Amino acid sequence: METLISIIHILVSLVLIAVVLLQAGKGANMGAAFGGSSQTVFGSSGPGTFLSKMTTIVAIVFMLTSLVLSHPHFQGAGSVMKGGVAKPAAEQPATPPQLPAAPSTPGSQLPAAPAPAPAAK
């Protein structure tokens, strides 16, 4: 079901992009005066009413599919928090800090002394 709605959502989004790009801008009348193409394909009233209705319908379907896909029922499969809600740091049991173990012999952990530098003549 989720796959079907996702496919519909993607197709509707592509149709919405196409319908919005097909609409003429506010300044299209000036471009048509200098040899622009005639827009009689959509009827004598122009593309304004047809494309406006088409945009409204496609936008409503896009919003509905977005709402359906955002419903928690579809998001239950891939949760980041699989083990439930994590406890805040204040509620977690505190473990006492571990001190490093003392060396067994006093001189075994010390670095070796550097070699003396040769005397310059």
Number of strand elements? 0
- CA distance, first residue to last residue: 90 Å
Residue windows where pLDDT falls under 50 for at least 5 positions: none
**Quaternary structure type:** single chain
N-to-C series of helices and strands: HHHH
Q: Sheet bearing the most strands, described?
A: none
Number of helices: 4
- What structural class do helix, strand and pairing data support? mainly alpha
Strand content: under 5%
Q: Radius of gyration, rounded?
A: 36 Å
Helix content: 40-55%
Q: Mean pLDDT, as a whole number?
A: 73
Overall, the morphology is elongated
Task: Give the key terms.
4 helices; 121 residues; elongated; single chain; mainly alpha
Describe the structure.
- The protein is an all-alpha fold and 121 residues long.
- It is 45% helix and 0% strand.
- It has four helices and no strands.
- The protein is elongated and about 100 Å long.
- 2% of the residues are buried.
- The model has no long low-confidence stretch (mean pLDDT 73).
